[in-house]
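User: My collaborator sent over this chain with a note saying "see what the structure looks like." That's all I know about it. Can you take a look?
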Amino acid sequence: MKRMTKALFSFFVFMSLLALACNLNSSTSAPPTLVPNVPAITPRPTLGYATPSNEELPQVTPGAQARIEAELYNLLEQVDADRLIMHIDALQGFYTRHTNSSLTDPSRGVGAAYSYIMGQFETIRAQAPTNFTSFPQEFTSEYNGIRAINRNAIAYIQGTEEGAGVIVIGAHYDSRTWDLNDATGFAPGADDNGSGVAAVIELARILSQRPQRTSIVFALFCAEEVGRQGSRTFVRDYLQPLNIPVVGMINLDTIGSYDAPDGSVNDFDIRLFSDDDNTNQSLAR
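Assistant: Without extra context I'll predict from the sequence alone. Here is the result:
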C-alpha cells in the first residue's frame, strides 16, 4: 500500500507543480484574489479559462529542470501514508455518505463526513504559514424526490505571483451503494471516493507549508454520484461569477485500488483521462 501511495502521489504532486509552472504571460495586474463569498469583486483574469497547448509550453532549461525535480522529491518525501489511511478509515467509518443521508448525525452520514473534512482544513489552516482559507459552499441538492441543503468543502492558498492563474484540485466525498436510491444502506466508499478525498487533504497540508506562485483551490464536492450537482454548483455559482482564472483542474476519483476486474494487480501505472475537446487536456497528455 505504501509503495502504491508513493507512486500515486509522485504523479499527483508532479502534475500540481507542472500546472503551477505553466503561466506564460507577464502581467501588471494583481494576482487573482480568491474570496469565500460570491459578491466580492476580483481583478480581471489574465489567462481566462484557456490552457496553453503543448506547443506553447515554455522550454525548461537544464538548471530549472533539476530544481523542479529536486522540489518534486522534497514534496514526495512529505507524503504521509499513515495520514492517508487515517482519512480513508474516518470517511468509511461514517457508514454511508449518500447525498440523502443524515446531515445532522455527528457520526453517520454525509453531514458527518463534511464536518470531518472541514475539521481537517481548519487544522491545516492553524498550522499553515501561508494564506490558507476554507469555507463552505451550500447548495440545494435534489434526488429521488428529496431536497436537501448539502455543502461543498472549499479551501485555497492565495498565490503570490501576478498572472499565474488558479489551479483547482478536487474530488467528491459522497458515496453510494449499488442501489443509487438507497440513502441508508452501507456505503463506505473507501476507494470511491475516500481515496480521492484523502489525497486532496494531504496535498493541501503539504502545499500549504510554503508560499505558492499560483493560487490553488482544494474543492471537495458533495452530490457527485447523483448528477455531479456539487461540482456544477461550484462552477456556476463560484468560479464563473467571480471570473476566477482557472488554468487547470486535477480531479482525483477512485485512486486507491490497483486491482483489475480480472484479479490482476498493477501498482505501477496510473490512469489519466481528458476529453478530446477539453481545454485543459495539455495537462494530461
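A starting point for your reply to your collaborator: The beta strands are 132-143, 146-157, 166-172, 215-221, 246-251.
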